[in-house]
Specification:
78 residues, 1 helix, 38% strand, 4-stranded antiparallel sheet, alpha+beta
Length: 78
């Protein structure tokens, strides 16, 4: 298993929190497909929550997240 950081961003609502996004090669053993790992750290160091998303599901996850973002923005406009 090898992890390559793809990017990080500040976690809104926290002083030190970060969202880290990485590629993980062979996450479940030799020959398993790469995944995207999204980690949440409240203190900027220790990952408290983590999600693993197979690349085959990534486009659908992004679509749902974009729909959720748009719905939230509309809700806040009212």
């Amino acid at each position: 298993m090898a992890t390559t950081e793809l990017g990080t961003l500040s976690l809104s609502g926290t002083k030190k929190g970060v969202i880290s996004i990485s590629n993980v090669s062979e996450p479940y053993g030799k020959g398993t497909e790469d995944i995207v790992s999204i980690g949440i750290s409240l203190n900027g160091k220790d990952i408290e929550w983590k999600s693993h998303i197979p690349y085959a599901n990534l486009d659908d996850v992004i679509k749902i997240l974009q729909e959720a973002s748009e719905a939230k923005k509309k809700e806040e406009e009212q």
